[in-house]
Specification:
Blueprint (H helix, E strand, L loop, with lengths): L2 H10 L22 H21 L9 H30 L5 H30 L2 H9 L2 H4 L2 H8 L8 H26 L2 E4 L2 E4 H7 L5 H17 L1 H22 L6 H6 L4 H13 L2 H14 L24 H15 L1 H12 L3 E2 L11 E3 L8 E3 L6 H20 L3 H4 L4 H4 L1 H16 L4 H36 L6 H16 L18 H4 L5 H19 L4 H10 L6 H5 L12 H23 L1
Parallel strand pairs: 3-5
Antiparallel strand pairs: 1-2, 4-5
Helix pairs in contact: 2-3, 2-4, 3-4, 4-7, 4-8, 8-11, 9-10, 14-21, 14-27, 15-16, 15-17, 15-20, 16-17, 17-20, 20-24, 21-22, 21-24, 21-27, 24-27
Amino acid sequence: MSSTNLDSEKSLNKIDKVPLPRWDLGDLYEARDSKKLSEDIRLLDKVCEEFENKYQSKIETNKDAEFLYQSLQEYESIELRKNRIISYAYLLHQTNLNDPVISKFFGDSVARYKSWEAKLVFFENQLSQIPEATLKVMLENSTDLERYGHYLASCQKFKPHVLSLELEKYSKDSSILKSSWLRLFDTTISSIKCQVGNKALTLEQTLAMLQSGKRKKRKRAFNALSNEFEERSTIFALITNTLVKGKEVDDSWRKFPSPQSSRHLHNEIEDKVVEALQESVVNSYPDISHRFYQLKSQLLGLKKMQYWDRVAPLPMAPQNKVPWDKAVETVENAYSAFSPQFASLARQFFDNPWIDVPVMEGKSGGGFCHPTVADAHPYILLNYQERTRDVMVLAHELGHGVHQVLARDKGEILSRTSLTLAETASVFGEMLTFESLLEKATSPRERFALIAEKLDDMINTVIRQMSFYEFETRLHYQRREGELTPGDIGKIWLETQTECLGPAFRFNEDYNSFWSYIPHFIHVPFYVYAYSFGQLLSLTLFGIYKEQSEGFEQKYLALLKAGGSRPYHEVLEPFGIDITKPGFWNIGLKVIKNYIDQLEEMYPEILD
């Protein structure tokens, strides 16, 4: 760790008297200059070339199931080693974004990773070219190969979008340029210091101020954020224009019909399912987000809310802070009430240095869970600030961690869950924790406040994420007409957010640049609908659990253990769920509406 980060930890991490947990990446590699890391890099240089020489141009024409199975085993072994290296470099970088030495290490690691991928790119392309009839016979005659059946079927779906081998290699080699743009974005974001009064705060700290109970404080935070985003708007617009155009070029060469199509294919989800999700959520704006924010504006005593009021706490919200040990206890107890095995797996993250908890300068904002590799374990990054919402983030990311631990027995290739199912355990973990807090509420006002805060989060996860999807869709199509100025992008942003949030708000031009700090637009285009998908699917699963808990635990754990080894419709079948049915998404949306109903019913009592 750099001395800069040590100093920043002292200045920013004042939440607990006892230092908050930091992760230790030693289970991946001991250090950047470790002998094991150097050996793995040299070995990968060798085995990637050997694999290319051994199997290139021989996969799609060979009808021997044992030969194909052997190639998959060797490929998986290579994937395990190269993913370990890039996971280590990425995680080290995420807590040291401002350290030039570690940034160089990360950049060099990405370059090596891309060079290995260029040597291996032929493999999945050739898997996609195996004649369907030939593959069917091989799978029927080999129980070993059958294990990879879903993975092979997924590769086959990319057949219409595969380029020549030379172009595929060029695409992999040149993708290092995209990685540099991503690093520029991350570095720019991490360097932001917001001047709020006489304090220079990190982006994460300033965003947290938007949840202050004092309106003037929220407004100061908003103005500071707006100033910083506006000052960098030219850089953010350049990054966005470049990456969106690059995606358009790639999509064109690969003959994807729309900017979203490649994401849907990677997520193993049909276009029509996402379209139905999008339509259902957008149609729900008036009855969910508009309705909720109208009620919230009344509770805050405002005729019109400004953006800085959106996540403001209600007057009756508890003001007490939640120490880290209390957050751990809360989530553990909620998980345990559902499943002792679920709780036991979660406990590993607290018993071991697998979580990085404090807010620090130079650390990535928000929270995430990185799966690393199947023969290690996931790592969780948080920015814990003692809020109830931070407890829910812990429950969310811990759900990811449990999911990834359960799935790792499937191996490096098959443990990776598609994004649409990847949010299942995380949102379910949130709901378990929320319901636990709700049961312990000691007064109607506390219950009201908990439901209102949960609705804030649900609307963020379901409604606003789909409005982000709308923003991206319009952005990508308009970019095809020519380069977009910061003002052009801001106009699209304001349009989609006004539609989503509704008439309770009055927006001004200072809000136009708030698209710029959202990393998903840059790192994983069209990722955002996975949150809406996962939330609504999990709400449906949670409803099934509440109605009939007997036998649910084992079916649910089996779903998580499947990882990416089976298609989504198979793992959901035991629950009687068919997401392709018309109106499916309205089941989860109805749960959200019911919470708003409860608030409206309780409202007169709260006023008394």
